[in-house]
Amino acid sequence: MNASSSRPRILVTRAVFPEHLERIATHFDAEANQSDVPIAAEDLASRLEGVDGLLCASGDRVDTSVLADATKLRGVSTISVGTNHIDLAACHARGIVVTNTPDVLTETTADFGWALMMAAARRVTESEHWLRAGHWKRWSLDQFLGVDVHHATLGILGMGRIGQALARRASGFSMKVIYNNRSRLPEAIEEECHARYVAREELFTQADHLILVLPYTRDNHHTVSVAELARMKPTATLTNIARGGLIDEEALADALEGGRLAAAGLDVYEGEPTINPRLLKLAHVALTPHLGSASRDTRMAMGMLAIDNLIETLAGHEPPNRVT
Ligand code: DGY
To answer: 2 pLDDT exceeds 70?
Structure first.
């Protein structure tokens, strides 16, 4: 047996940085997809035959059909903190270790959430499109009036690491922070974040700017729908940097079209990369293509961490970020 054939075989589903490829090459025999064309689920299934490890990303669905012939697969390492694209139960039933990339993206993603919330509140993208289209003829007192962020109430739904990082940013804007989460945070963290736990209903009624940062699961599909949107102030903004499926996009479009919500900032979509055409038509929605963690340093760190996770998993060691 030559040296390379004893090394684990891995499949890398999406293009990664040259530094990642270098590190991968020192540990694995890898099939890399540097063309970056997403691999369809049927193809992924056949390409996993005889493969020990999968390095994937949030657009790759890893479910029972994909795993059917992956008899050698021992590790699935996703370059994301979200794992909703992976059937965890199916992986665990087959003894496949699943890992993700938390922590390294927290501050970068919170920065982006902040930017998107600010863009929606102060109509940054909307006015830029208008200016680029050549419409600006003069300054006017009432041009593109937005809603203030400073001294307003920030509502955070999902108070994990990114939610807490957002809350910490709010102090600089003299904001009041309220949050709702599956479980209330320890008092010390609430104090550090200057955040007050409120009931879900109160979060929607009180927030001037509401940001979604909770993980998506089957149980919270469309957790923001007609009733929740109806509770929000007509002057409020809604920002989603978590997962598209959390919002009923038709209900959101209705609320925005009907003037029942001031603006929205969306980085994630239910059918991404396809965007609901009604949202595309609305100028008061700032839309970005799933960029929350997209700084060069953070994407580099996420890739490296995902590789580390796979190295440890395939060596039979406990990986740094096992998802249970
Ligand atoms: C994550 O890490 O989950 C981001 O949304 C990128 O997919």
So the answer is: no
